[in-house]
Amino acid sequence: MKNSYQQLIQNLEYLKLKQMTQHLGEVVDFSIKNELSFIDTLVKLTNYEIDVKEQNMIHSMVKVGAFPHRKEITEFDFEFQPSINKQQISDFISLRFLEAQENIVFLGPSGVGKTHLATSIGIAAAKKRTSTYFIKCHDLIQNLKRAKIENRLEVRLKHYTKYRLLIIDEIGYLPIEAEDAKMFFQLIDMRYEKKSTILTTNINFKAWDEVFQDTKLANAILDRVLHHATVVSIVGQSYRIKDHLKKEDE
Ligand code: ADP
Ligand code: MG
């Protein structure tokens, strides 16, 4: 004959409540020692299961985000880049901009931390279970092009529109054909005032018509991107070559 404790263990295992099974003994001990009520005991026990579920959920959201690395804001050295307002970045990390469907544009030369900052904000969003996706502009265009050839551009555009936060990295590193710029515009237009987008670029807005090789389209894209946006212009040295610069000073 099983005693009740063994029966409970068996029930929890049957229900696949692994954490509750594992922590049952310890919670019973704690409950007896501290004279916890039945309800408080159950809360404590179920919290173990919930904590692990949450962790798994966060883990999978971050995975889905397809970030280039897992660098978070704690790894960003604000002292190295004094043109960046730390308070402003903290505000982005709080995700307030998502509530207002606002965009963020990081503008600046190579190596100043644009991708790092965009990724940090993206990871913060994913951790809060916001559907987030990171993609390089070039890859995005290639994917849209392929979809168009395969007659499923509409589906692909809808796919990229569904993310609450989309990060499009490296606009302007490679020129975009006018035909492809149209698809890019479609995506920006579909997300406009509905979803937030973070863009990074090394090209001043004035020169975006060269990137998209069509002045009207470039203006239409900029219009929608910048209407509700914060532009963070970063001026400074590349973090990638900082150690080389240091050596030269010595
Ligand atoms: P960008 O996208 O502007 O070209 P990245 O964000 O890719 O630059 O930064 C280049 C490298 O330097 C990355 O490894 C990034 O994590 C690191 N980095 C850049 N700026 C900083 C900083 N201020 N503090 C810490 N690491 C930084
Ligand atoms: Mg970058």
Annotation keywords:
single chain, 250 residues, alpha/beta, Rossmann fold, five-stranded parallel beta sheet, 11% strand, elongated, binds adenosine-5'-diphosphate, binds magnesium ion
Task: Describe the fold and architecture.
The chain is of the alpha/beta class. The chain folds into 2 domains: 61 residues, no CATH class; 170 residues, Rossmann fold, CATH 3.40.50. Helix content is 57%, strand content 11%. The mean pLDDT is 96. It binds adenosine-5'-diphosphate and magnesium ion. The site of adenosine-5'-diphosphate (ADP) has 16 residues, from α6.
**How many beta strands in the DSSP annotation?**
5
Low-confidence stretches: none
Largest sheet: 5 strands, parallel
Tell me the CATH topology of the largest domain. Rossmann fold
CATH architectural type of the largest domain: 3-Layer(aba) Sandwich
- Strand ordering within the main sheet: 2-3-4-1-5
Number of domains: 2
The fraction of residues assigned to DSSP E strands is: 5-15%
Structural class based on helices, strands and sheet pairing:
alpha/beta
How many DSSP H or I helices? 12
H-E order: HHHHHEHEHHEHEHHEH
The CATH C-level name of the largest domain is Alpha Beta
Cα(first) to Cα(last) distance is 79 Å
Can you tell me the overall shape? Answer: elongated
Bound molecules: adenosine-5'-diphosphate, magnesium ion
What helical percentage do the residues reach?
55-70%
CATH H-tier superfamily of the largest domain = P-loop containing nucleotide triphosphate hydrolases
Radius of gyration: 24 Å
Average pLDDT, rounded to a whole number, is 96
